[in-house]
Each structure stands twice: as C-alpha cells, then as structure tokens.
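Hey team,

Filing this mostly as a record. A colleague (T.K.) asked me to run one chain through the structure pipeline before their review meeting, and I want the input and output archived in the tracker in case anyone asks later how it was produced. No errors, nothing strange. Just documentation.

Input sequence:
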Amino acid sequence: MHVFTRQLAAVALVLALAACSTTTRLSSTHPDTTVVVKGETVAAPTDHAVMSTSFGNYEFKATSPASDKPFYGLLPLQFKGGRLAMDILFFAPAAFANLRAAYDFYEFDMDNRVIRYKRKPTDSWREYRPTPEEADRARRFYEDAAAGSGSVGAANK
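Output structure:
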C-alpha cells in the first residue's frame, strides 16, 4: 500500500508540473523573425514551452531583417478559471503560480506592430497592440539585461 501511495504522489506531481506550462506556437508575418521571451531566444515559427504565472508578465522582443527596429511588448495571457477552482479545492497555494497562461498560438506582425493570438487552430485571430508603456517596459527589460544590470530570466519587476 505504501508503494501505491508513492506512485500516486509521483503521478500527481508530474501532472501538476505539466499543468504549469503551455506549448505555444510562435510565428511571424516575416521569415527569419527571432523572438525573445523571458530570456529564451527562438526562431519563428517554432513551438515553445511558456510557464504559467499569476502575477508576472512575459516581455518579448521580436526582430526581423525585414524590419528596421525591434518590436517590444508583453504577451497577452489568458485567465485559467478552471485552475483557480482546482486550486481552491485541492491546493490553494498553487493559485500564486498558475492562474494565467500563454495562448496556444501567437503571430508577430512586425509591420503593424501587433500580436495576433488564439487558443485553437480553428479560432479567429485576435489582435493586440502593446501600449507605448508596455513596449517601453519590455525594451528597458532587455536593455537592462544586455547591460548586465539584471537577468533576463529573472522574475519581473
């Protein structure tokens, strides 16, 4: 019986950790676009794991040879009400880490400075244009990291 309890606990831990990240498809309207999200640089299009968060944001920096300047902003995140219900019922402290998650699909439009996002491949794209304040925050985040005054992978300020 003791072995069964340990196996059950191990399965529960694996499921809980898997629920804390989302595999997201990052693409762009231009080929050869590079996207940096939380210190991880990827070449679009690609599938990328993005951890869930409750209080943080995901600053991004997108660059493309077709665009003369980088595109900065914050990724739009979706609220996970089902996770909140499960956290309340089974493990309330988890609510501090997993209430918001990345959408399944993002498309960076370098020309129009918008991010398109959706949950399912069949959904229509929703557009989000980062505010000037969000773009400035993300730009400072990456400039500070490049200057060595902060870690790109660190928690948000």
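Quick notes for T.K.: The radius of gyration is 18 Å. The longest strand covers residues 21-28.
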